[in-house]
Amino acid sequence: MAVADPHSPAINQSASDSAVQRALANFYQRYQAAYHEAGQPLLTELIDDWPEAPIYTQRRADGWVEWAPQRRQQALDFSDLEHALEQPFPDSFRDYFNFGYSADVEVSWQQQPLLLLHMQCDQDSQRFLQNLAGHVLMKRRLKQPITLFLGLAADADDLLLTQDCVSGAMGLEWVGKPQHQMLTEDLASFIEQLTPRVIEMPEDIR
């Protein structure tokens, strides 16, 4: 059984990293360590359309693939989408998705189980941008404050984790509704307070 090695760097940091990116680097390290201590491998389902996804480290015959976070070499360009939507995004939001490639990760914020969304490869990035555009257009049609989604509740996929475009605050909102609960005032603080949630795989998958 292969498990994440907590002594190997999850993802390298740079002196120019923002507060969000430093928080993410530390989080990835904690995430790998949590899985290692639990004797669980980091696994995600293999996406056949993304054979060159940079996070894939070892393919398996059972439809799963071992993965590890990888630093992006080229930033994702949000400018075309921001221009089309006439909506600038918070710097922290761009920093979050421009830091690295990763599988979605299971976390807890206090007692709330969440699934944080990430991009596994460039093709995944384009899919994400399309979904993000649909979310922003829906918020505008409903005449609600514009938010950007970064995840969802693990036990309710219509409960979204979002960032307010103006204040940068992190909160929860039901699909089609405004944010009803603020979690933290900024994204970096939110990441720093996350607890990795280890999902135990059946013995025949480990």
Automatic annotation (TrEMBL):
Top-rank lineage group of the source organism: Bacteria
CDD domains: Syd
One Pfam family here: Syd
Keyword list, A-Z: Cell inner membrane, Cell membrane, Membrane
Annotated GO CC locations: cytoplasmic side of plasma membrane
InterPro entries: Syd (IPR009948), Syd_sf (IPR038228)
Record's protein name: SecY interacting protein Syd
